[in-house]
Amino acid sequence: MAARWHSLSSRLFLLLLLALQPWGHAYPQANNESQLKAAYLVNFLKYVDWPEATPTATICLFGRDTLGGYLAPYETRSIAGRELRIRRVTGPDQMGDCQLLFIPESEEARYGAVLRWVERLSVLTVSDAEIFTRQGGAIALVRAEGRLQFDINVAAVSAAGLKPSSQLMRLARVVIGAAK
Amino acid sequence: MAPHGTAMNKILKHAAFLVAFQMGGATAGWCADLVEELSLEDLTKTEITSVARKTQSLASVPAAAFVISADDIARSGAQALPDVLRMVPGIEVAQIDNGRYAVTARGFNGRFANKLQVLVDGRSIYHQTFSGVMWEHDVIALNDIERIEVIRGPGAAIWGVNAVNGVINIISKHSAQQAGGFVETSIGTQGKLGLYGRYGGALSENTTWRASVQGRHAEPSKQFATGTDSEDRLESSLFDMRLDHRLGGGSDLAVWFNATRSALGDLIRVPVAPGGVFTENSRQSDASQVLAGRYRWLTAAGIESSLQLSLNSSSIELEKYFREERKTYDLDYQGRYTFASHDVLWGFSHRTSSSSAQTPGSLISLRNHDVTQRTSGVFVQDDWTLIPEKLQLGLGARWDNTNIGGSTFAPSATLIWTPSRVDTLWAKYARAPRMPSQGENNVTMWTNFQPGGASVFTRVVAGTQTLRAEKMEGLELGYRTQLSSGFNIDASVYRYRYSDRISSERGGLDASGFPNVIQNVNICNCSAGWVSGAELSADWQVLPVWRLQLSYAWTRIQMDEATDPVVQADGKQTEQSTPHHHGSLRSQWNIAPDRQFDAWLRASAGYQRLNAPYTEMIKVPGYLTLDLRYAQKLGKDFEVVLSGRNLVGPTRIEYVSDYVASVPVKVGPSLFLSTRWKF
């Protein structure tokens, strides 16, 4: 038994050693997924038109904040001519001046309520669960084929009085809610 | 043993070499500033080869909370749910045999540790006969878990009675995420076999379903003392189904059906007068069927509501000694309304659980063979934002009433201060009750044997009066920070006071059978003490493709001095039965988009446990051990996984079982080969 065990373990480690080969990539690698999500939120502000011009562009984070630290480097920067602000919100009263609202997947149980709160506001709603756009959210960040991509619910974007750029539409992985 | 030791040394050298190679192989990663400059098109093309991080700092979560993601579970190499929980700071996991575990949070571990609430999709799996979770009974397949939320410390205000030291909330994947087919097979040393299969589909655009099956098998472990086979052969099977229906307007319906069956042998040690202690095989069989439904809806006024009903029919048999059939009905309503600065949560719950038990033989006897327990509770919680984005006060209260054990009240208050976007400090005060189990109220059982000129047999006798709930009250302070975009730290300290803790005191002495003497001990609410501790977890994205996670916990129990010698002895044993330190370090490395290498270093201090049914203490040694996992994708939909557990350090025991006393078995190295196929 000891001999077999030794032989088996040696083979296991030899296999592991053989696996340790460097690997190149054609595309840049992000430090982590949350950084990518933060970068997406900032970029969405550049590719959507809001009905009213405002001096600031505010990204609001709802519920369990997992992106606040990753958005901090962008704060006070100029995005499409507006100064970027980051805020954490917990209820409907605080969402009136949000341009973009991020609802993390861990708050999935509250999608319905939060979407109701911003129903009459010009707020771009974003989450990181695929199911979000099917529940009436505007944009879902989706991990697919080893990349972070996004789906768009056009009906939700229009209902918020927002106008997505053609580039945003072209780059979306899936577009739903389009009028026939 | 020498050859085995030599093999261990070589494995250790290999491991050291691998770690060095990882360090040496470090290359400059893409730095944060460049991500900030990426265009939208660049973002859609960026490969995610980084280790997924869903266990990030949850800055707004008011408690020592730790989230285990589905990816963490897959990369842990764990075969059973308790082994996954080892990565949480403050959760003590000790393996008893092939299927049995002792799991607790912040002290008081036991075969049925009774101060931890465990929920699957909101359903409590806390067993009322034993006041604890039967971990050998698979309640959900690991592949079906979306995440596990672990909240250490008292959570009774929302989660209900028995959430004294913590809450473990297991959330299953939405069936829309599990479309198509999936098969996982695994084969391991010690005759371990595992099979998991799943298929999911859509009945309509708004209706999805998923069905999964799982089977696990293991050949017996070796007895620690003698090296011969024990009796813990494991057979476990599980069928699980979930259906989700979206109704629109924020409403949805979820239905679960779950049927599980397991059989696990045990070499138990039975004190029998006259004669002493006999060792024999007693096979334990468990079966459970659950049907549950949850309806969530949103009213026009904006109230979020959830109503959940579940029916559970279960049975357990400890061959020759104990049989029980139980039916449990649960109703849970929760409402939530967010307005102005307030986020108000309220709820009502009711449970009716009826059991019928038989106890052949003389080891165990029952005062009542048929018991029906009804428990109702209401709670309210308000999270009040005092200063937006800076200061939040949470106030909660819960009332519960049961026909066995009376009423309890559990208040809590939490203050959360977020001085900056990356810093959170919190202080939490809470009280939590722990309802006595039906076993504690009802069972008379032979527990100990002390040989000598007069051989003393100890018998625990159920009291004539119903036991009161145990009480706990305590304070927790915590700090959470993000030092850089890839480095998070989470620390907490706590001090809890326990009173009316259930123990047993000296009762009558029966010397009529001299030289065999029977010492009765009576169960009572007669113990009290303090638990103090500290916990630390750190999460470091060292490189885009490399992540390290550290967890560490320190725990100390100080029981009050007692005049009764049996209570005093129990207090001392409890103090000595807790490892003061335990921790783990996990490394996850994405070698390439199709290759993963994971390492998990785990350590625990040693401790003393009663060598039940004997009365002397036995040393459970500390350990440092290593798990490794290598996964390789072959094509888009097929994956091969090699994993090894407990690869370094001596063969050991992690626990000595007390109720029921059993022969300790070895925990040693094991290897697994798994295949995962998606279609």
Structural features:
heterodimer, A: 180 residues, alpha/beta, eight-stranded mixed β-sheet, two-stranded antiparallel ribbon, 7 helices, globular, B: 679 residues, mainly beta, 22-stranded antiparallel barrel, five-stranded mixed β-sheet, 36 strands, 58% strand, disordered N terminus
Secondary-structure blueprint:
The complex is a heterodimer of chains A (180) and B (679).
Chain A: H1 2-19, H2 33-46, E1 48-49, E2 56-62, H3 68-71, E3 78-79, E4 82-89, E5 100-103, H4 111-117, E6 124-127, H5 131-134, E7 139-144, E8 147-153, H6 154-159, E9 163-164, H7 166-171, E10 174-176
Parallel strand pairs in A: 2-4, 2-5, 5-6, 6-7, 8-10
Antiparallel strand pairs in A: 1-9, 3-4, 7-8
Chain B: H1 2-24, H2 32-36, H3 40-45, E1 64-69, H4 70-76, H5 81-84, E2 91-95, E3 101-105, E4 116-120, E5 123-124, E6 145-152, H6 156-159, E7 166-172, E8 180-188, E9 192-204, E10 207-218, E11 234-248, E12 251-264, E13 267-272, E14 276-281, E15 284-298, E16 304-318, E17 322-339, E18 342-358, E19 364-366, E20 370-387, E21 391-402, E22 406-420, E23 423-434, H7 438-442, E24 443-450, E25 455-461, E26 470-484, E27 487-510, E28 516-543, E29 546-559, H8 565-576, E30 581-592, E31 595-604, E32 607-610, E33 617-620, E34 623-633, E35 638-645, E36 670-678
How would you describe this protein?
The complex is a heterodimer of chains A (180) and B (679). In chain A, 33% of the residues lie in helices and 25% in strands. Chain A has helices at 2-19, 33-46, 68-71, 111-117, 131-134, 154-159, 166-171; strands at 48-49, 56-62, 78-79, 82-89, 100-103, 124-127, 139-144, 147-153, 163-164, 174-176. Chain B is mainly β. Helices cover 10% and strands 58% of the residues of chain B. Chain B starts with a helix and ends with a strand.
